[in-house]
Every structure is written in structure tokens, then in C-alpha cells.
Amino acid sequence: MDNTGIVLSTEERILAAAAKVFRLRGFDGARMREIADEAGINKALLHYYFRSKDLLFERVFRASAAEYFGSLRTILRSEATLREKVIRLCDQYITTGIEQPYIAVFIITEANRKGAGFVTRIQSEEGVLPDFEPFRLQIAEEVAAGRIRPVNPEQLMMDILGLCLFPVIARPMMQRMLGVSDEGFREAMAQRRDRIPKMIIDSLYNPAG
Amino acid sequence: MDNTGIVLSTEERILAAAAKVFRLRGFDGARMREIADEAGINKALLHYYFRSKDLLFERVFRASAAEYFGSLRTILRSEATLREKVIRLCDQYITTGIEQPYIAVFIITEANRKGAGFVTRIQSEEGVLPDFEPFRLQIAEEVAAGRIRPVNPEQLMMDILGLCLFPVIARPMMQRMLGVSDEGFREAMAQRRDRIPKMIIDSLYNPAG
DNA sequence: GTCTATATATGGATAGAC
DNA sequence: GTCTATCCATATATAGAC
Predict the structure, then answer these.
(1) Which of A30, A111, B157, B194 is the least crowded, having the fewest Cβ atoms under 10 Å away?
(2) Model pTM?
(3) How far is the CA of B6 from the C1' of D2 (A)?
(4) Which of A24, A132, A149, A174 has the highest number of chain B CBs within 10 A, making it the mutation to test binding with B?
């Protein structure tokens, strides 16, 4: 029974605990002991359910990636206008970045870890990373029709994600460098929710500078 | 003797090896054994020179942070125009991001690690993170004089760093999602070196969209 | 299914010879 | 200053009772 009032099975409690610990500490920093404590069970039971740390991690990472990229996939392949997609993307990732900052850091950090075969493997699985093709096509159409300035879809996607996610990922460093409090950071991110889409859309629709 | 032909002291070789291993694997993933091997010496000698893994890491992290933020500090407090600073910043961090991708990942990852007291401490030390004040003032002056559109200096800095650094940090994920080869990634980054400053400067100098 | 106890491996760190 | 050998703590994983 967690704070939702819903009774979770042992397996579910383990997965929830593992997600919490792995996201906070990463694979190398996580301890099976801490996961067991967090789940309120015994270390041995972790192995009974998931056999090894690797396998448990794999489950957590796959679920995290699917969850984190799910909204990206949905937005990219929706029927919305380009303008609308940019707004939704920024809103989604900035909101998540404020409320659950660990997920983004977790996924990106683990993707950079060397000798982590499964991470690469999982990211190659169907349905984990979004299909970029629909978005690419949509951009091409808009450009061809002369409705937006010519732009490379890959560059545009890097712009959007960079502007939204970088502050979340580099948060400790940025707050320190810029001298911003936790509250100040949240305010800055709230500003960005309006600022970034405007900036992107301006650069697409305005005459060249 | 490394490939520069310069004879390094044992201490220097250890530091070089430690930097390589820590940057690649992070604190938790790094093994003293691997550092010793990389330096061509014995594990015991690591402790003779640096006493503990923590202390060795601290040296490496401080040096890495100083090196990585050094150019940022220099650029921010230089006498260059705003336009010029933006161009130099982007050039600096995109070039470094292509040639030495591990440093950015290392610093940001470690800054996010929980229970790593020294990281916070080191970042608070004088001369590690750049002083943001000169840049803030310069922006304020430009805005006051009506030479650029009103802009929040913190937002601007997050924009610049996000646009330049995010692709470097999220590289494995981005390449996979966008379907880009290593060579393609380098080309994309080269494009960004021109693209980002233009984008930033446009948004500062052009009439509002 | 869940626990206690234990096996086995490995990591950081130290002792002591040279 | 550098090495070999070893200590000690801790991590993952398993055995076996209940």
C-alpha cells in the first residue's frame, strides 16, 4: 500500500523502488540493498523476482525510456500543425523536467555509460525511441509549400530538446553559476515554457535575419 | 613518455590516467585498478600518491571543471561585443564538444550525482565556475541603450549552452533517434557552429515576432 | 513467497620488502 | 618510489529453512 491507497504486489513494489534508486544513483551507484530497503523487503527477494541487478535495471530502464519518450512519439506522429507540435513538445518536457527531473538525467546519463550493452539494445527496440520520420516529412512539406523558412529537421529537433532539457540536466551547475535559488529555477523554467516555443516559431516563420 | 614525446612524472601520469578513466566511467564506474593499468603502474602507488579514490577524483574533477569553464570565464569577462561573445562561446563549446565529448558529460553527470559532497564544494571554489556578473551587466547595458530586445541574461545563457551542449551530452540518444551516423553527427555539429550564433543573434537584434 | 545465513567476488586500502 | 601480498569491507548472488 503506497500513498495512492492502491495495494501493490511485491513485484510492483520492487519495480517502483528500483526505479527510484536507479534514477537517483544510476546503475553503478545503485545498491541492491537500498532497493530492497526501499521496497520494504529482503535482498534475496530481489533476486527471486528478477535474478540479477542487470535484469532488474533493464526492466527499469526500458520502462523509463518508454515512459519518457512516449509523449514525444505521440506528439510527433499526431495530426497537429507544426506550430502546435512545438508548443506541446516544450510544454511536455519542461513540465516533466520540473516535476520529475531525475528521469531525463537518468536516461541521458545511462545512455552515455560505456560497456552498457543493454542500454544500446533497449534503445534499438521497437517502440522505445520515437519514429522521427513523420516529423521529418511534415517539415519537408512546410518548407516545400513555402510556409516556413528552410530548416533541417534534425537541427530543429536538437534545438527544441536542447532548449527544454539542458537546464534540467545541467541544473546544479546552472543554478550555481547563475546564482539562482530552487524557487528561482522553477520560475525560470516556467518562463521558458512560453519563451522557447516563441523563439522557435519566430525562427521558422519570420523573414531571415 | 606519452605520444607528445614529453617525459611525465609518475604523478602526472597517474593524473592523466585518472582523468581518462573518471571521464569515461564516472566516479562510481571507475576502478582504481583500471587507472593503475592505464598509468602503467601499481594500484598501491595510487594510494601512495593520492591516498584515496575520493582525493584522486577531487583532483581530476577540479582540474576538469577549471579547464572546461576556463574559456567560458575568459570570454564572458572579455571586452568583446555581445555579438562577438555569442559567436566565440558557441565556437568554443561546439569544437570542444566534438573533439573531447567526454568532459562535458563527465562534469554534468557528476554534478548530478547524489551524496557527492566534494562536487558541490569544488564548484563553489573561487575560480572554478565563471563569474556571471560582467555578462549580466553587459546585457543590461545593451537593453538599456535599446541596442537589443529586452532579454533575461540567465535565459540567454541557458539558451546558448543548451543549444551547444545538449547534442553533445545526449549524443547517443540523438544519433539513434534521428538515425545519424558518427560522420553525420560531426557534420551536424559543424552546421550548428554557424547556425546557433545566427539564431541567437537574430532573436536579440530583430524586431519582435 | 519470504526470510536468515552464507558463499563468492571484487573493490579500496594497507603492510612491508626492496 | 615502487612492488607483491594481503587485509577488510561491501556487493551481488545463492542455499536452504519456514
Answers:
(1) B194
(2) 0.94
(3) 22
(4) A174
